[in-house]
Amino acid sequence: MDIHERKTNVNRMARATPSSVIKIAFGRAANRCAFPDCPPITLDNGVPLLEIAHISSPTPGGVRYSPSLPFADINSPENIIVLCPTHHMAVDRNPEAFPVNELVRLREAHFERVQNALSSEQKRSTSSRLSHLLEVWERERANDSEEYWQQLFTEHPEVFSIALGGRAYTLNSKCYVGGKSFTNTGGNVLDFLADHRGNVALLEIKAPSTRLLAPQKYRGNVYAPSRELAGSTVQVLEYRHSLISNLPALAYGAPGFQATEPLGVVIIGDLEKEGLSEGERRSFELYRSSLSNIKIMTYDELFDGIAMLVEVLNG
Ligand SMILES: [Zn+2]
Fold this sequence. Notes:
Blueprint: H1 3-15, H2 19-28, E1 51-54, E2 80-83, H3 85-93, H4 100-140, H5 146-155, H6 159-163, E3 171-176, E4 189-196, E5 199-205, E6 213-219, E7 222-225, H7 227-245, H8 247-251, E8 263-267, H9 271-274, H10 278-290, E9 294-297, H11 299-313
Parallel strand pairs: 5-8, 8-9
Antiparallel strand pairs: 1-2, 3-4, 4-5, 6-7
Helix pairs in contact: 4-11
Bound molecules: zinc ion.
């Protein structure tokens, strides 16, 4: 094809930028001109007043002519920058001031601003969700309804990221983990079953007001766990046993379901409120650190972890 024909083709292609290319480019640019501080302008129908500008032209004599740009790549993302009509005209009328590398730099700086805005928005929303949880904790600390706390954790599964040391979890409350007899009675129904690093964690939720230690000292300087703490620990062990022994049946039809070494978690009590003596605290710590596969976490520890996270997020 001769130069004239080629020019006409290029112009037609440039004009007829495919709508998919436009959508992707506008999306990556967050519907803003690549020039920093260029105010967004939208038409009456809400469509942003923006244009696709071509960084290089494959045609001799075209703006920022690049002999190495293949004819077919005129609309490739690398050759496109999103600009408002004013800046589009400005860069095309003055290519010496706006050479290829300058436009590429503008575009990349723009993308970085978009990414930063998104990640700081995400941080803000996570931080405000967690701050809300701290307010709830302050207000409801004395609430002794287990159902209340179960509901709160169902609505805020991110709390378990803290209890279980990272990652997000999907939760199912009141999960059946097997254990029914032939008469279809006595099945184990768990408070929560959480995805934990591709595995599952078994959770037992008590109230913050649940006592951690028995009211009477056992003997000497030895204190026994409360009936509720010992009971819920055994309860989780029972769930765990039931889950492992019923695994083939439970995992049937649930691909990706794994339960090798599932972790049990008991959320119970309020160390600060309970105000343990030194000896009591030692007995409690000895008790919980001796348990394998079971993590005992108190409510105040859980919410202290959330408070720390909020501090980190707010930098
Ligand atoms: Zn602009």
